[in-house]
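Suppose you are handed a protein chain with no further information: no name, no annotation, nothing but its sequence. What can you learn? This example shows the usual starting point.
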Amino acid sequence: MDANAHETWLAQVDEAALDPERPIVDPHHHLWRTHPPRPYLLDDLWTDTGTGHNIVATVFVECVAEYRTEGPEHLRPVGETEFVAEIAMRSRGGGRGRPPIRGIVAFADLRRGPAVDEVLMAHEAAGQGLLRGIRHAGNHDPSPEVRRSHHRPPPDLYMDAAFRDGFKRLGAHGLGFDAWLYHPQIPQLTDLARSFPETTIVLDHFGCPLGTGPYAGRGEEARAAWRASIAELGGCPNVVAKLGGLVVGPTGLGFEGAPRPPTSDELVAAHRDFYLHTIDAFGPERCMFESNFPVDRLSLPYGVVWNAFKKIAAPFAESEKDALFRGTAARAYRLELGF
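A reasonable first move is to predict its three-dimensional structure. Written in C-alpha cells, the prediction is:
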C-alpha cells in the first residue's frame, strides 16, 4: 500500500479523545527522513500527537536514522543523536498537541570494549543534555522466517561476555538500557537484570511475543511461555516495561491487512490480556504505555492507540493511571516535564 492509500485507510477510523486532559508522556517514538512508507519528522509527529490527547513530552528511541557516513564506524550512530537533538531543540515551546522531545535513547554497539566509553561520551555531547539511555537490540530467532532486528544481532547477545563488558559501563555514565528482544529470549534479559541490579532496564514491546513463522498456530503455547517469562522478569526491581508495540509484524497481532483499522474497543478486545498480565507482573509503578509510532501507524491511528490504553486502565486507581501514562516514563527516563 502506498503512502497516500495508507492515509486513506487510516482515516476510516476517527475517535474523539477520551479523558483529554490527562497528561501523557509518550516514551517511544521514532523519526526518520528515509524509511518506508514515507518520512516521519517533527511535523508528522505533531500531526499525530495533535489528535486530542494531552501529550506533554516524548522520548525518541533509536531506529538507524541519519548515521554519519564518514569517520570511525563505531561513532557513526552518533549522527542519529545529532539529528534528533536538533529536532528536539525546535520542538520546545510548541504548545498543546505539539510536545517537546525530552529524551533520546541512542544506539551503541556494547561489544566494542573500551571504545564503548568513547561512543557514550560522543552521544552525550551530541545529545545536548537529552541522552537518557542506549538500545542495543537482541532480537534473534533460529528460524529464518522470523526476521532479526535492524542491528542484526547474533544469538544470545545479552549473555555475551563482550556485550556485558560494555553494558557495565552504562552505569558510570548515568544511562539506562532499552531491551528489544523476542519472548524466548526473555530469560536471558532476566539474567542480565540480576547481574546488573543498579542499571535501569526498559523492556520494549512486551518482549515481543512471537506469532509468526514456526510460532504461527501455536498461540496458546507461545503465550504460556511468554506469561511465565514476564512473571519472572517482573521480579527484577530494576526492570520497567513498555506497554505497546504488539502490532509489529513478528507478533502476528497487527491489523495492516484488514479492510480498515481497528477501533479502540477492537484493539482492547484483541490485546487486553497482554497488558493486564504485564501490569500484574510489574505493577503500574513499573509500567508505561507507549505509542511505538510511526511503526504502529501501519496498523492504526495515534488517537485510537491512546483511547485503547485509557480503556484498559479504566479500572485502576488514579495514582496508578498517572504512573502508567506519565509517572513511570518520567522517572525511568529522568525527564524534565516543567509542571
